[in-house]
Amino acid sequence: MTLLSPDHAPLVAGKRPADTRVVVAMSGGVDSSVVAALLKSQGYDVIGVTLQLYDHGEATHRKGACCAGQDIQDARQAAARLGIPHYVLDYEAQFREKVIDGFAASYASGETPVPCVACNQFIKFTDLFDTARDLGADVLATGHYISSRDDGEGGRALFRARDAARDQSYFLFATTAEQLKMLRFPLGDYPKTEVRELARQFGLEVADKPDSQDICFVPSGHYTDVVEKLAPGAVVPGEIVHIDGRVLGRHAGVINFTVGQRRGLGLGAAQAGSAGEPLFVVRIDAPRAQVVVGPRDALETRAVGLRDVNWIGPGRFEDLPPKGLDIYARVRSTRPPVQARLVARGANQAAVVFAEGEFGVSPGQACVFYDGPADEARVLGGGFITAVEQPFAPLPVPPGDVRRSEAERAVG
């Protein structure tokens, strides 16, 4: 197999590799291990750091869990094979406070949280940054499939990975412009098959290790177990209601449902609508303990409201055109970006109006912005969905907000 040539451009302009210290976040998987090997082979002063993020007792031997006991051991073995220093740091308290507790609270409120975004935002790219600086690092490198390049204005810009099937830009939209100056992502131009081949050439035992599949702190794979343990008071029985107002049944707690869910509604014969069509969860009303169901058409989302918008595109977010900016938006990591218009609504808030309806969108998910549909499009930023406008139930609009009709006219 012919491998892509590693990029030998200096990680830090004007500084030789031998004089450049790089901390590599090593999870114990093949990707971060290859990053450490590549940079070591290019002559950089490499230090490996692995974060112990949760009590891995029952997950120690479970495949597909990051930073569990076996993963820490795999990271140690990779570092030893490469002859680089390796540290394991206990970040359990920070991870519990900033990621796990927030995940449980969000889920209990009827949202669909994305804990991997929070982990990157509050742990890997903040607390780990501090550790890297304490170790005298010039650069922090990770095994994410995404690219960063000079933006021509003294900073760096993010771009989707060349391998669209592996692209992880959805989980990294909250990375700030300041963080990007120190971050490097050496795998952005590599397909996974070639990364595994590189691992074999470097003699790494993790070359054929399976990829992580589940959220690392959910050993059973059942999110409800975590929520019930951390927020037991939030599990309240309630009604399952059709969008036409009919009460179809009862449920044991909204945490057992997600928007778009079709199976396991517990409705028996009522699981099919009056016209015989299958029913889906179209909205979760946690304050009322209601699960709202309807036909698939009711899942269509025309627009979303966003909070905590992070802008890493050119210029300033507050200087976007009043009528909005044409972008491509992505509401799930498994979906391609689609045409939309981004309308700023003040400090760190926005509305995104889709050119065509999206389906199965839920509050709590991320909405990520790109400057085009191509595999290597630039990441402009993103935010977290707070409100979803559906055809059957227009959203209430607080005073001062941009109403959807105005946003629609802006899209043209």
Automatic annotation (TrEMBL):
Residue pairs linked by disulfide bridges in the UniProt entry: C119-C216
CDD domains xrefs: MnmA_TRMU-like (cd01998)
Record: residues binding ATP: A25, M26, S27, G28, G29, V30, D31, S32, L51, G143
Start and end residues of each tRNA-specific 2-thiouridylase MnmA-like central domain: 236-294
Broad class of enzyme this protein falls into: transferase
Catalytic machinery residues: C119 (nucleophile), C216 (cysteine persulfide intermediate)
EC number: 2.8.1.13
InterPro entries named in the record: MnmA-like, MnmA-like_C, MnmA-like_central, MnmA-like_central_sf, Rossmann-like_a/b/a_fold
Function: Catalyzes the 2-thiolation of uridine at the wobble position (U34) of tRNA, leading to the formation of s(2)U34.
Protein name per the record: tRNA-specific 2-thiouridylase MnmA
Source species of the chain: Methylocystis heyeri
